[in-house]
Amino acid sequence: MTLPKFIICINGVFRLGMVNQHKHLLKPGEQCIGGGYYHFDFVSNVIILDRESYDFGRPKWHLLEVLKVPSTYRGMRIVYKYDDGFHDDFNVSEELPIEYYD
Questions:
Q1: Which top-rank group of organisms is this from (predicted)?
Q2: pTM beyond 0.85
């Protein structure tokens, strides 16, 4: 069953797609530093990220200097919701520099 999942790689690449497992988003030689699930809030123009990858855990945002986002999502804010009662939401768009790629 495919679900909307995302990963982040150690080199800053952010990738999302409809896949069975998070590892299916990886390209050969890439190192994943976390992932989770996503959905779009088109009214607010936000990509909402949440939960965690069974294989790779929660995104390790602190390891990134820049997030490389597909240019398709230019102009959208990105927010990660911990939903654990301990952490505040992480506003990725404000906390990390964003670079766009094709």
A1: Bacteria
A2: yes
